[in-house]
What we know:
By secondary structure, the chain is mainly alpha-helical. It has helices spanning 16-40, 43-50, 54-60, 64-77, 90-106, 109-126, 132-145, 152-173, 179-208.
Amino acid sequence: MPRIAENRAPAEPVSADQKERYQRILRAAARLGTQHGHERMQMTDVAKEAGVAIATLYRYFPSKNDLFLGLLRSQVNTLVPVTVDAGALPSQAVAETLLIASRRLLERPLLATAMLQANNAAQLKIGPEGSDVTNSFHVVLFRALGITDATAQDERMVRLVEQAWYGVLISVLNSVITAEESEDDIRLTCELLLGPTYDRSRGDAENQE
């Protein structure tokens, strides 16, 4: 009989051994999630693959959603934004950062769908303040824009871009559009939403120098 997920916060690994087990769990979940997706992946199989007790797995990840959210968090934490310092306009830097993230996700469609479902569930549960994964992702996009102190308007614009990007990803995963079409859509989205404000502001600043 499947274990009922507990409604509690996941434990955080502290010691070196705990962190090593935590990473083994994530690697096992990534392998099995790639093969089976959200519904067919079993927590008992993850524990067996990772070589940990089922109680250890549930201590760090009280539910399957928590586990897939942990996988998404690990991907976001390794995402390095393209920056305007590299010669790109702000809208282009964001677009290229999103393209990097998209390509990583779309390499493993079942896993990508599972991680996005888990983030949706977290957003619904947490509310307007957003999940830590979403907030971390926004920070990456702010860095791509060259923003260190985001205003409410900056946060709104990044949120709109993220929502549009998410919709494009879902369209690819549902075979509505191709991956190639999605890349054109992402670039156009960033150009239309961010270009008039952030590219123009950068151009005005350079002209004043």
